[in-house]
């Protein structure tokens, strides 16, 4: 038997340090990072690099590039959660805590809001923003693809502009589904597919203006080029709806905001 596989690279050789075969990369799983294709295990590091770099100017850039509209999109998302005072809310990839602050006001002192993010710098800023607003809520650094929370716990899980950055969106959605209680809902606020007649203008803005603005304000044109590219690689409204359904969500629907520049998806766990 030993002779049968002679000369054929064996699994233990492939992809590891000593393989003399250049083909070993074909066994490596890849994913998108903007328009680039990168090994899956490299994407989290690249995404972390983006947010480490822009944290200090993140909020200002959001206001400038959306002309303040992101505040309205976030308010709309929280309104569509229908959470009541006393509810438990988990904000995933919550960054500088815009949603967490709005949810905390809504659920009141009897409720519970937990802010999470994988990135320490973003989370620290989020915690500071919460403290500045007089809000003391739990802040947890964790990967959305492996949430360190029990099952069937939250009335609402939210994720704003985070899913796009995840390597395994299906795993993240499955985790968000797991931690929701039956009857609970997921809100996904994310860039989406813009109304077709606006596309040329939107493309010119995204690829012409955004990286320049990123360079001037955050000293990082690449991070905002990644933003524009990652939006184009993200599933559109219908594709994301199907992804959510595949993860187990029911009654999934979406609302186009600003002509589809952004969409809010809502789905329930029953
Ligand atoms: C564009 S920011 C959005 C922040 C905030 N939700 C908002 O709407 O302003 C995306 C956030 O996703 C976080 N993120 C990326 N990958 C993540 C992962 N696998 N798990 C948790 N957070 C992640 C980033 O660290 C970053 O803070």
Radius of gyration: 20 Å
Q: What is the fold named in CATH at topology level?
A: Rossmann fold
The name of the CATH superfamily reads Vaccinia Virus protein VP39
Helix count equals: 9
- Percent in strands: 15-25%
Strand order of the largest sheet: 5-4-3-6-7-9-8
Anisotropy-based shape: globular
The ordered string of helix (H) and strand (E) elements is EEHHHEHEHEEHEHHHEE
> What is the mean predicted local confidence, pLDDT?
91
CATH architectural grouping: 3-Layer(aba) Sandwich
Separation, N- and C-terminal Cα atoms: 53 Å
Number of strands: 9
Assigned CATH class? Alpha Beta
Determine the fraction of residues in helical runs and give it as a percent range: 40-55%
Classification by helices and strands: alpha/beta
Bound molecules: S-adenosylmethionine
Q: What's the number of domains?
A: 1
């Amino acid at each position: 038997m030993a002779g049968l596989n002679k000369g054929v690279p064996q699994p233990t050789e492939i992809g590891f340090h000593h393989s003399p075969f250049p083909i070993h990369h074909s066994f490596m799983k890849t994913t998108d990072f903007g328009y680039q294709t990168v090994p899956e295990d490299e994407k989290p590091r690249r995404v972390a690099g983006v947010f480490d770099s822009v944290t200090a100017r993140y909020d200002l850039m959001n206001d400038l590039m959306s002309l303040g509209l992101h505040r309205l999109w976030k308010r709309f998302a929280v309104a569509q959660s229908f959470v009541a005072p006393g509810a438990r809310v988990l904000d995933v990839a919550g960054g500088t805590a815009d949603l967490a602050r709005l949810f905390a006001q809504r659920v009141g002192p009897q409720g519970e809001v937990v802010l999470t993010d994988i990135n320490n710098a973003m989370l620290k800023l989020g915690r500071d923003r919460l403290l500045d607003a007089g809000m003391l809520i739990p802040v947890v650094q964790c990967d959305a693809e492996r949430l360190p929370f029990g099952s069937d716990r939250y009335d609402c899980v939210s994720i704003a502009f985070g899913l796009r950055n995840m390597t395994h969106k299906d795993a993240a959605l499955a985790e968000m589904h797991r931690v929701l209680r039956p009857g609970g809902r997921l809100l996904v606020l994310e860039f989406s597919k813009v109304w077709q007649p606006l596309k040329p203008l939107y493309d010119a803005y995204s690829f012409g203006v955004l990286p320049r603005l990123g360079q001037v304000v955050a000293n990082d044109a690449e991070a905002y080029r990644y933003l524009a590219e990652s939006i184009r690689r993200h599933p559109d409204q219908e594709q994301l709806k199907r992804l959510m359904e595949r993860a187990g969500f029911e009654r999934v629907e979406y609302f186009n905001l600003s002509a589809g520049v952004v969409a809010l998806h809502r789905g329930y766990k029953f």
